[in-house]
Design a protein that fits this description.
- It comes from Chitinophaga terrae.
- Keywords: DNA-binding, Transcription, Transcription regulation.
- GO terms for molecular function: DNA-binding transcription factor activity; sequence-specific DNA binding.
- InterPro entries: ChrB_C (IPR018634), Homeodomain-like_sf (IPR009057), HTH_AraC (IPR018060), HTH_AraC-typ_CS (IPR018062), Tscrpt_reg_AraC-type_HTH (IPR020449).
- This protein is mostly helical and 292 residues long.
- It has three domains: 138 residues, no CATH class; 63 residues, no CATH class; 58 residues, Arc Repressor Mutant, subunit A (Orthogonal Bundle), CATH 1.10.10.
- It contains 14 helices and three strands.
- α1 links the parallel β1 and β2.
- α4 packs across α5.
- The longest helix is centred in the middle third of the chain and has 22 residues.
- It is elongated and about 70 Å long.
- The N and C termini lie far apart (60 Å).
Length: 292
């Protein structure tokens, strides 16, 4: 991480915001200390005291309405600091939508946003001291930055000695075309889908092809050979139906809730696909469970 020298502020400036930080009020201090002013000091006070204490302490208020360092339109304070201080670090650019999504309840902006919110909320719940919480937040965002800078393409099951996906695919291209052995990319693809199906129900052929570095047309053409003679779309739908059956057997969720949890746009679509794969509607399946 490289510090951005900013002649507009003295080193060691005070920054002040409202108490009980969770997302922006932890992410912004991390960003300031790592890229604007390594000696910055932060003060947390009740909301109604921020401006008064800012004047008394000669501190810069942030992440409250009506000050310079705050939210603008759909952007959060973290975004404003990046823009204001011209922070061009690529890993910080990756973090921005994650922080924004967690801070504004827009978890669709980045797949990591909901996880960041959950961890941050849990930290705040467990740690009553705001300054101890800040230090834990620094550790959290250092870790997230390292992931963004070095580990985005690494899976949790991947060991350091394993080849990257591109290397695996290139090795496959060198194999004899007549070989019927399941190619490495197909094995990797199955692992990726299984890893993500519970948390990322919007898997796309284009996104997976980019991860594997395999042309989407080739992936689409070859997919069914290694995935139960199903097209990519049918295979993903089958996994969603398998998940729906699991939820029907183990939870008391309504059919509408299960349709949502398994990634279907509406219950009628869910019912149609469920019947296609099981031969009966979800309601009929559920009634059958009740009779057992």
């Amino acid at each position: 991480m490289q510090k951005n020298e900013n002649p507009g502020y003295l080193s060691g400036m005070k920054w002040i915001t409202r108490e009980r930080p969770k997302i922006d009020r932890l992410a912004c201090p991390w960003l300031i200390r790592r890229f604007v002013d390594a000696d910055a000091r932060f003060i947390y006070v009740p909301f109604e005291e921020v401006l008064e204490k800012a004047a008394a302490e000669n501190a810069i208020p942030f992440d409250i309405p009506g000050v310079e360092y705050t939210h603008y339109a759909d952007q959060c304070t973290f975004d404003y600091i990046i823009k204001k201080h011209k922070i061009n670090d690529p890993a910080v650019q990756v973090l921005a939508p994650i922080v924004r999504g967690a801070d504004t309840d827009r978890h669709d902006l980045a797949s990591q946003a909901s996880g960041l919110w959950a961890i941050s909320a849990g930290l705040a719940y467990n740690e009553p001291d705001d300054y101890a919480l800040l230090e834990k937040g620094m550790w959290l965002y250092d870790a997230l930055y390292s992931w963004a800078k070095h580990l985005q393409q690494v899976k949790h099951t991947q060991q350091p000695f394993e080849n990257q996906l591109l290397d695996i695919f290139n090795k496959y291209l060198q194999q004899e075309k007549s070989s019927r052995k399941i190619p490495a990319w197909a094995k990797e693809l199955k692992e990726i889908i299984q890893d993500q199906i519970d948390t990322n129900l919007n898997l796309s052929l284009k996104g997976l092809s980019e991860t594997l570095q395999v042309h989407p047309a080739y992936l689409s053409r070859e997919f069914s050979k290694y995935f139960d003679d199903l097209s990519f779309g049918d295979y993903i739908r089958k996994l969603r139906i398998d998940k729906a059956i699991q939820l029907l057997n183990t939870t008391e969720h309504s059919l509408t809730e299960i349709a949502y949890l398994t990634g279907f746009s509406d219950q009628s679509h869910f019912t149609r696909i469920f019947k296609k794969f099981t031969g009966k509607s979800p309601s009929a399946y559920k009634k059958g469970l009740a009779k057992k």
